[in-house]
Amino acid sequence: MASRRSLDRSLRQRPRRRGLVTLAAMLIVGCGLGFAVVLSQAGDRTAVLAMGHPVAKGQVVERGDLVSRSVAGVPGAIGLDAIDDVAGKTAAVDLVAGQILTGDMVTAEAVPGPDHAVVGLSLEPSQVPSAGLDAGDVVAVLAVPAKGVDDPEAMEVPAVLAQSAQVYAVAGAPTEGGTVLVTLLVDRREANRVAAYATSNRVAVIETSQTDGGAAP
User: Fold this and answer.
1) pLDDT digit string, tens, across residues 125-137
2) Interatomic CA distance for residues 82 and 198, integer angstroms
């Protein structure tokens, strides 16, 4: 009787052991396939261009702004061998440090574009946002009365000289005191008026949302 019970127990355990063996074999095969995929992807890595420094939209990408990165699976990434072609082009979007470059992020179009002009402003700290401005920011340019002129209507409803201008370059900061030099990309139709008011120091700039449609190079 005891030997029969032992035989029955052995027969019941055999399928379970076979299942464990099968499961272990499947795990080994799965791990092997995963490792093979990892090795395959590692072998497909290529040297591409990435940003070593941030460059604002509309600014020129210099060779010193570019670095090499080894990546895999980045559609449209620009290869390292194209560095001479990329250097000197204009950023079509704001580029951040570490970003992998793709072809649509840079353009060969000149700055300013055919519908825009570059205008320089020399502003006092009170004429710019206290937080300062950066290249790529979108601003509105307002006309303000000349110093010593009491014009309540002009103060109440100041004329808008440029609705959506793009900051191209900035030198100085409001917190440092002194003059803040701001270079703007403005609509060509607004450029003359902005420049005329700027020569009389009768402008102020306010930062607006980029969704308002900033000037493009």
Assistant:
1) 999 999 999 888 9
2) 41
